[in-house]
């Protein structure tokens, strides 16, 4: 700047766009120092930070894609498990229905068997009661017939063996006539 004043005082006219030589040299040296400092210290740090950010962004995107793929896989597994669970539930319902039908059929068969046993026992009891009633009736009819015959004849027919044979023969004849009438 002092040089400019000196030149202005000398009256030389200089192009304002072209700087004086010493100033140009000092400016170039200062620029080289700043450029060297930026190129060696600051620019590698800036590039490193930018590279880390790029890697973080790419890594984040890769992680997001991996997470999305994993989420899709888990969703498919969940859907498969849900479908399997529904199938299993349907199978269990079907088995329960079949077991219920089998139990109902078994209970019906058991009820039928018990009913038949009760009916058979009833028939056997009725048959036994009929035989007992027939035997008692035979004895009573035989006793009445013997008493009546004794009153008609006028003497007692107390011989039990003969009396039993006569009564049995009489009742057998009555039964044969009843069966023949059917």
TrEMBL record:
HAMAP family: ATP_synth_b_bprime (MF_01398)
One Gene Ontology cellular component annotation held by this UniProt entry: plasma membrane
Gene Ontology molecular function, alphabetical: proton-transporting ATP synthase activity, rotational mechanism; proton-transporting ATPase activity, rotational mechanism
The UniProt record lists the keyword Acetylation: no
Bilayer-crossing regions: 24-43
Keyword Ion transport: yes
Recorded superkingdom: Bacteria
Function: F(1)F(0) ATP synthase produces ATP from ADP in the presence of a proton or sodium gradient. F-type ATPases consist of two structural domains, F(1) containing the extramembraneous catalytic core and F(0) containing the membrane proton channel, linked together by a central stalk and a peripheral stalk. During catalysis, ATP synthesis in the catalytic domain of F(1) is coupled via a rotary mechanism of the central stalk subunits to proton translocation.
Name of the protein described by the UniProt record: ATP synthase subunit b
Membrane topology of the entry: Single-pass membrane protein
Coiled-coil portions: 47-102
Quaternary data: F-type ATPases have 2 components, F(1) - the catalytic core - and F(0) - the membrane proton channel. F(1) has five subunits: alpha(3), beta(3), gamma(1), delta(1), epsilon(1). F(0) has three main subunits: a(1), b(2) and c(10-14). The alpha and beta chains form an alternating ring which encloses part of the gamma chain. F(1) is attached to F(0) by a central stalk formed by the gamma and epsilon chains, while a peripheral stalk is formed by the delta and b chains.
Gene: atpF
